[in-house]
């Protein structure tokens, strides 16, 4: 909630265009709670946070970059056992949206229920082979996105600070083209790991450990 009102390293201090929580429990598919209201105005969020005690969860506050504020456009996004959230933008989305969506194979396009660049990139990464090689799939997708943005005639940057998980491993990425990359912080402990983003290519991977 503090991050939604007082983000110290983002372009805007307020992230009030919805929020979401995702977590891995006893099921292979992650749980998901998303809302279009600002995080600070949702009374259910406080109750959920008091009770969710799991080794791997995602939390995201959204500042929209042009797409509508709807529940399907709030992060995180899920497909099967995969979960993803993103901080940044993909150039001028209106110029390259159709070409980016063309990167999504039919088997993953059924999960395309929103209109954001973030969800499209997530499904493109899965389509590029994330099940077998998640880091390589992400790098291949970013290479293609860089080419699309650089040839689209826009001055808007590609910023990709993101987290990806299959419920066992946690991957965090930081990349930018045409501008500075949003920040990425991570913390490692004996049993738990975490990553946080507010605004170069880097990637970190951590194995998820069970509850103590």
Task: Describe what this molecule looks like in 3D.
This protein has 212 residues and is of the alpha+beta class. It has a single domain (2-207), classed as Glutamine Phosphoribosylpyrophosphate, subunit 1, domain 1 (4-Layer Sandwich). The chain has 6 helices and 10 strands; from the N terminus they run H-E-E-H-E-E-E-H-H-H-H-E-E-E-E-E. Strands 4-5-6-7-10 form a 5-stranded antiparallel beta sheet. A hairpin with a 4-residue loop joins strand 8 and strand 9 (193-197). Helix 5 (117-127) crosses helix 6 (134-150). The longest helix has 17 residues, at 134-150.
CATH topology: Glutamine Phosphoribosylpyrophosphate, subunit 1, domain 1
> Shape from CA axes?
globular
- The secondary structure category is alpha+beta
Distance between the amino and carboxyl termini: 27 Å
Strand fraction band? 25-35%
Low-confidence stretches: 198-202, 207-212
Largest sheet: 5 strands, antiparallel
- Rounded to the nearest angstrom, the radius of gyration is 16 Å
CATH class: Alpha Beta
Any idea how many domains?
Answer: 1
H/E series, N to C? HEEHEEEHHHHEEEEE
Mean pLDDT: 84
The CATH superfamily bears the name Aminohydrolase, N-terminal nucleophile (Ntn) domain
Q: Count the DSSP helices.
A: 6
Helix content: 25-40%
Could you give the count of β-strands? 10
